[in-house]
Design brief:
single chain, 3 domains, 128 residues, alpha+beta
């Protein structure tokens, strides 16, 4: 028996939480908003709503093999030079869902110095 891919709960089936749903929809269509912080009591559907919205969004075009999921038409340089290696190749990737714990620190979110490599070889390298 094959296991079906898990599909998110339908966004349109979420009852109540009108302000949260409106904020999520606005963030999905207006990139200048920068994001939405969803908080509330346990069991109110926060993660379900965000996962449902992420499931509605069209896939992103990304550079194949780039662990940062760089957009092929983005002109800012990638640390790993992925665009130069990939050329014109593009692949599609699902919109990521990021669930941060309450005490998440900046180094755990964006990365920091690879201490193991720095101590072993003296090389300074960023570890995402």
């Amino acid at each position: 028996m094959a296991i079906a891919a898990r599909t998110p709960f339908p966004f349109t089936a979420i009852v109540g939480q009108a302000e949260m749903k409106q904020a999520l929809l606005l963030a999905a269509v207006e990139p200048r908003l920068g994001g939405v912080m969803v908080f509330g009591d346990r069991g109110t559907g926060k993660s379900t709503a965000v996962r449902a919205l992420a499931g509605l969004l069209p896939p992103m075009k990304v550079v194949p093999g780039c662990r940062y999921k760089c957009a092929p038409d983005d002109r800012s340089p990638c640390i790993e030079g992925c665009r130069e290696r990939a050329g014109k190749h593009v692949e599609e990737s699902a919109v990521p869902f990021v669930d941060l714990p309450l005490g998440a620190t900046e180094d755990r979110v964006v990365g920091s110095l690879d201490l193991e490599r720095a101590l072993a070889t003296g090389e300074k390298r960023f570890e995402p």
